[in-house]
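> call design_seq(struct)
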């Protein structure tokens, strides 16, 4: 989905995080204490989101268990089918500033993202605004260290890797040194997520809601320094999941780049949690292209603003995932440069 018409769509913020991280406290704060935002909180009762790709229920009646709070927010339990619940809410979605989808123990939000973006009933009414990971500052380190019996990535690592924002909760329970060590570690895993510190889940909602941080153009707002190679740190990175930023000048050959991405996603989609890119293509004039993806689900299109006269045509890529090889990715991407532009890079 492009950003055209995004203002008419109701933003959905997906909240992930472990039991005990403070999600219930956050939901209670939203529903009972704050008065700035009218939010519809959807609580998933099962810990697994059942997505029905079939027909969406035609009924637009409000779900029977919709509870309205004094501050205008509402709360609803999702029992099984998220699509049906969102379909029923579509008729009154304009009543809300945002929808907050609380997912207990869900490590991978890809099914939610895929459904909202590809199901016409959903994409005509909603857009994913951001994925927020609520993390317990005191216990997150232990969760990140947890070894799975089959050697797979544990849920905490996945939740951090997918996030646009990380709410670092319970910072009052750790020392300044412990907090800094954890923040440094989070930036190794996902240096592109914004870390927001909170106590007792009192989150600054204006920093996590309605920011459209999941859109294709989010890569444009990153600090340029994020893409600088960190050779001195690279050898010390022992994390299974990490983030890699790559940049180089020149214009890409569209066919070569498409082939590279198709091969990469075919072979590594399960390992690639998030991907983003800012691209210049040979033969496309001043059109600047952007993409962002979750696993193999990629959204691609022209940026809202073209390359400016005299602006350096610098391609930028973000990969967050498992067992990433920066040199291999860089080499593969630079082989996609149009021959006239290879010498510039």
């Amino acid at each position: 989905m492009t950003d055209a018409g995004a203002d008419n769509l109701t933003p959905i913020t997906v909240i992930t995080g472990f039991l005990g991280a403070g999600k219930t406290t956050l939901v209670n704060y939203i529903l009972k204490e704050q008065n700035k935002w009218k939010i519809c909180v959807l609580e998933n009762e099962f810990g697994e989101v059942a997505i029905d790709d079939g027909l969406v229920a035609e009924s637009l009646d409000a779900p029977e268990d919709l509870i309205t709070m004094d501050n205008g927010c509402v709360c609803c339990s999702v029992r099984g089918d998220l699509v049906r619940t969102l379909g029923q809410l579509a008729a009154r979605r304009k009543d809300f500033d945002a929808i907050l989808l609380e997912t207990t123990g869900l490590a991978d939000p890809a099914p939610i993202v895929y459904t909202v973006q590809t199901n016409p009933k959903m994409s005509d009414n909603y857009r994913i605004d951001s994925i927020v990971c609520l993390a317990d500052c005191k216990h997150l380190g232990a969760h990140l260290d947890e070894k799975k019996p089959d050697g797979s990535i544990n849920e905490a690592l996945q939740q951090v890797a997918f996030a646009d924002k990380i709410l670092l909760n319970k910072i009052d329970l750790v020392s300044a040194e412990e907090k800094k060590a954890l923040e440094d570690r989070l930036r190794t895993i996902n240096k592109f997520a914004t870390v927001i510190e909170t106590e007792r889940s009192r989150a600054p909602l204006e920093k996590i809601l309605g920011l459209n941080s999941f859109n294709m153009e989010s890569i444009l707002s990153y600090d340029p320094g994020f893409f600088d190679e960190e050779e001195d740190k690279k050898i010390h990175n022992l994390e299974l999941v990490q983030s890699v930023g790559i940049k180089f000048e020149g214009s890409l050959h569209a066919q070569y780049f498409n082939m590279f991405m198709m091969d990469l996603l075919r072979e590594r989609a399960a390992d690639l949690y998030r991907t983003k890119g800012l691209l210049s293509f040979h033969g496309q004039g001043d059109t600047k292209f952007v993409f962002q993806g979750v696993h193999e689900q990629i959204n691609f299109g022209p940026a809202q603003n073209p390359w400016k006269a005299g602006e350096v045509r610098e391609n930028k890529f973000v990969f967050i995932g498992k067992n990433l090889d920066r040199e291999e990715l860089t080499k593969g991407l630079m082989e996609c440069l149009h021959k006239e532009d290879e010498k510039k890079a």
